[in-house]
Amino acid sequence: MLRRLGAGVPVETLCAALGLTRAAFDAWWRAEVAARVPPTAGTVSAGAPGPVRILRDRWGIPHIVAEGDDALFFGLGFAMAQDRLWQMDYLRRRALGRLSEVLGRDGLELDIVARTVGLHRIARAHLDRLPAGTVAVLDAFSAGVNACIALRGERLPIEFSLLDYAPDPWTPHDSLAVLAELRWYLTGRLPVIAIPELAKRALRDQTLYQAFLTPEAGDETIVPAGAAPRARRVEPVTGGGAGEGPGSNNWAVAGHRSATGKPLLASDPHIAFGAPNCWYEAHLCGGSVNAAGIAYVGAPALLMGRNARVAWGITNNLCSQRDLYQERTDPAHPGAFLYDGRWEPAQEIREEITVRGEPDVELVVRCSRNGPLVDHLLPGPLRETGPVSLRWLGAEFSDELTCLLDAARADSVAAFRAALRDWGVPTFNFVLADVDGHIAYQCAGRIPIREQWDRAYRPGWDPAHQWKAFIPFDDLPAVVDPPAGWVRTANNRNAPPDFPYPLSGTWSSGLRARRIRQMLEAQDRFTVDAFARMQLDVLSLRAVDGVPPLLALLDGAGDPRLAAASAVLRAWDRRMTVDAVGAMIFEVFFAEWCRTVAAERFPAAIVDLMATASAGLALALLADDPWGWFAGGDRAAAAAEALRRALDVLEARFGADMQAWTWGRMHTIPLRHVLSGRGDLGGLLDRGGDPVHGSGVTVCNTGYDPNYLASLGANYRLIADLASDPPGLWAVDAAGTSGEPGSPHYCDQLPEWLAGRYHVIPLDRDRAEREAASVLVLE
Prior knowledge:
Blueprint: H1 2-6, H2 11-18, H3 22-35, E1 42-44, E2 52-56, E3 62-66, H4 69-96, H5 100-103, H6 108-117, H7 119-127, H8 132-152, H9 158-163, H10 172-187, H11 191-203, H12 206-212, E4 249-253, E5 264-268, E6 270-272, E7 279-286, E8 289-296, E9 302-307, E10 310-316, E11 322-326, E12 336-339, E13 342-345, E14 347-353, E15 361-368, E16 371-372, E17 388-392, H13 400-408, H14 413-419, E18 428-434, E19 439-444, E20 448-449, E21 458-459, E22 469-470, E23 478-480, E24 486-489, H15 511-521, H16 528-535, H17 541-554, H18 560-571, H19 581-601, H20 607-611, H21 615-623, H22 635-654, H23 663-666, E25 668-671, H24 681-685, E26 687-691, E27 712-714, E28 716-721, E29 728-733, H25 750-755, E30 759-762, H26 765-770, E31 774-778
Parallel strand pairs: 1-31, 3-7, 11-21
Antiparallel strand pairs: 2-3, 2-31, 4-5, 4-24, 5-28, 6-27, 7-8, 8-9, 9-10, 10-18, 11-17, 12-13, 14-15, 15-16, 18-19, 19-23, 20-22, 25-26, 28-29, 29-30
């Protein structure tokens, strides 16, 4: 039955074939998934290098207690495998390019990406260069995972039975591959360069091209003017929009801005919602570590959280760590690429991809000196532009795992910053606070120095377009104990034009950063509750900026429907609440307006693609058109027509009563399982579907353009009060600790997340013992 379900056979067909009622099937399914949830209480012989106690609280969050580091990370591997074993295997296969082995052709596209970029090769090369202490952590973590696999026997997570396979043993190479894939997810993003290249070719006008790159709130910088280090100036900082993608928020206030007299810190990473999501919440207590927060599934380190003395949060920095190179070929020199006047032979790597139920697929990866050719990974319209190669910093050695392990042991902001010196990829914005009252912002990562910078392709044959060096760590953007008493980041521009190095930024909208700054400047003292309210803030500065000029464009349109919509928008408070009709009308209009803006200058075949990168320009064009984007056209008429199309969409979907078009009817949070699209598995494994406040440009982040799709957002929220005694974290997950559909902790935190309620993760071992809902001892 499970194999047939996993193959896509509908439940109705299965029931008919077996003579089952749907009620009987549902009862069987519930019993089957519940039977696979591993025990979380008792004592088991697991081969641990020392005694390990896994204390789980009411949310199933593990407090892993051990005497030494080996036992501690063994326990982390064991606990993570108890909760997320199939997700770990999925992420491992995604990184290694082996999804097709179990998913068939459904996994081929992702396998081709992984094999082309060479994530498996990168991880193997990295493993040989890691410090012995980091390898020991990886070995202990892997041993814990494998001990859990052995003890589970045939009672594996339901997905293994649905797909009819069993997991291979976990290895340190697997953890490094998973981290390499995360680095690729956060920094690869080829369309960010490819779409501007397409715009440059289509527009053939530098003024219009620069207009296309117009960011939202591009002047909202993390580092204030005048705060740059003394260093050689290379060229002005270059940044801009063009759809870099989703992001995150973090901020901190100093003790004199806190009601407790000690710093407060908040952080919320934005990534795809899922059942479960990619974060694993845990408290590590033993050996050299006492810290709590979230790890990335498959890796033995906390990406964000706090220890007894330091708290930290992260956002993606978005300083470019990759370039696309147009390569030059010549029939007279087959199999070669031009560089500096010479023809260099291409290198070839052959990859065999096993595809379940079909013949193997051979992938030939051709490489220039810059890296692998990636034409086949680009958006459709750009796949015929000739050979394009990728240079990605993530292919070069860097050791973020050691940095994270050292940072978790840091006893001050200064020590934490020192632990980041060797951080390579991705570029992250770290916000820090410690019990001594210090706060800081630190940019971490290797940022190439480019003598020439553009968002489009580079000529692969020209040495002038090669990377020259990297910005020294001491010269990266940073702020320590600013007089204003706060720091904040939200994937916005790192530094103003006076910064001495080229950051080559591909930053997201600055609207979230602006709103956080407004809230930080609006009051003198903050509490944990105040930070929680900030994380739930739903004021859309896009609407604040965009609605008044839109209403001015619509004035006198003479259309009763437009007049009715204008009245709703005029009365709307610009907050993206689930009951707001104005939120619905504005966001659906804005999606249509982005298409209108793109259609004004781009061929029909690429309008949809270019619309995804036009938000900054589209917002600016509501107020004015200094570039002549609407050459000879009528902006007011175009805006009115975009609104008519939006109203048509809403009426067709929700009926003619405009007052029934509330934001929550469309803006719902999907917690989709990665197997959701196979047959009826979505109905069995998915959760969510609840109306949700916010949008992609609000601090309460629940969307991505078009914002009515709430497919990603702030799926974990964390607040640290450095005055709390004993120390702890306030946090909430949009899903839950367990990835087992039969567990009570499968997506059980969603109601808490929606309501803005937080749980506390204490770092105090005695409190964790007292509050434990279950205790599992590994001997």
